[in-house]
Amino acid sequence: MDVSTRVSADHGSLLDHLGARSPLAFLRNGDGIVGLGAALRLEFSGPSRVQDAAAAWQRVVASSSVHDAVELPGTGLVALGTFAFADSSAATSVLIVPSVILGRRDGVSWLTTIGDAPPPAPAGPAFAADFAEGALSADGYRAAVASAVDGIRAGAARKVVLARDIVAGIPADADLRPVIARLAQAYPDTFTFAVDGLIGSSPETLVRAHRGTVTARVLAGSAARGADATADATAASTLAASRKDVEEHSFAIRSVLTALAPLSEDLVSSRAYPLRLPNLWHLASDVTGTLTRGSSALDLVAALHPTAAVAGAPTAAALDLIASLEPFDRGRYAGPVGWVDAHGDGEWAIALRCAQVDGERVTAYAGAGIVAGSDPARELAETALKLRPVVDALR
């Protein structure tokens, strides 16, 4: 492929350039990339899906001619991707190279052309998604949490993340641009993404690789925001002191550091701190390090996924519990979503606060980390909080 990136006039809001039918985007605080059309689509499945994608991407890069006059993260040859959570998932994992990319970072705007831009699609009908319980009802979720707690206390695992699903119908030609815009405007500090029908705003960085440096933000443990400043401060301090949430967070940090160790050095993790989002608090830690052995962003994704923040610990035991207690395929929920470039650099988030749009059906997901001290009613309430961003956007 012939790829050309040049500096362009400011695009204004990148949200205004989204495609109506198959929007492609990865944005944060108004910066990032928006793709139009598809010059190349690669599909993967099974246990080696991320490793297969990394190898396929190397072949694409080797066969491409790239002229990049900007040289910023997200310029040049770029593919946006989303990967299924589970090895056995029926959901397709994809890398999509847009025909045209519009991007902006640090006040610099650019235009990347790889193929012909698609003709503009007309706006679809306005809609409001009315969600109902999915395969796992509220009562079923509480029962699943209780079963998980029994298993953890019996030694089956130390932590397991259990999710539930809700579903809605929308018009087949629904215009998803307003949904993505509402997410980006309501949650600017998160990664707002749209890739192959998966849309959402995730607060959690899986991994970022840029010119030899690796960074990640780990979130585990959460609490609802307070109704006023005093209650909000109390909620944050209570979360930071919560034995249950600190234990959950420590599992997540250890899993990330262990996974990154073979591919990086000088790894440092910050102390856990309360991270404020519009509708809840998270316990967060930031990890930084130096890449070794020429590792790419996709190599890091393969090593990290699934983290304890979305699966549990130990990983194999937690995945077994998920398979036995969740009566549905998670699809791409809690899987990696992001982009990779010709240098192997990229930004990848964990697909949280998201929904998958398949024709006239929308499925949204949310989960909670279960440990020995978990209360089923509280965990159900936590999933409701986490569902709010995407449910409100679709309504």
Report on this model:
- By secondary structure, the protein is an alpha+beta fold.
- It has one domain (2-118, 128-394): 4-Layer Sandwich (Anthranilate synthase).
- The chain has eight helices and 23 strands.
- It has helices spanning 49-62, 138-153, 177-186, 229-241, 243-260, 297-304, 315-325, 376-394; strands at 2-7, 24-28, 31-36, 40-44, 65-68, 78-82, 93-97, 100-105, 108-113, 132-133, 159-169, 191-195, 198-202, 205-210, 213-224, 264-269, 273-276, 280-291, 312-313, 336-341, 346-350, 354-358, 361-370.
- The strands form two sheets. Strands 1, 2, 3, 5, 8, 9, 10, 11, 12, 13, 19, 22 and 23 form a 13-stranded mixed sheet that branches.
- α2 (138-153) packs across α8 (376-394).
- The longest helix has 19 residues, at 376-394.
- The model has no long low-confidence stretch (mean pLDDT 91).
Describe how the helices and strands are arranged.
Layout (H helix, E strand, L loop, with lengths): L1 E6 L16 E5 L2 E6 L3 E5 L4 H14 L2 E4 L9 E5 L10 E5 L2 E6 L2 E6 L18 E2 L4 H16 L5 E11 L7 H10 L4 E5 L2 E5 L2 E6 L2 E12 L4 H13 L1 H18 L3 E6 L3 E4 L3 E12 L5 H8 L7 E2 L1 H11 L10 E6 L4 E5 L3 E5 L2 E10 L5 H19 L1
Parallel strand pairs: 1-5
Antiparallel strand pairs: 1-9, 2-3, 2-12, 3-8, 4-7, 6-7, 6-20, 8-9, 10-11, 11-19, 11-23, 12-13, 13-22, 14-15, 14-21, 15-18, 16-18, 17-18, 20-21, 22-23
Helix pairs in contact: 1-6, 2-8, 3-8
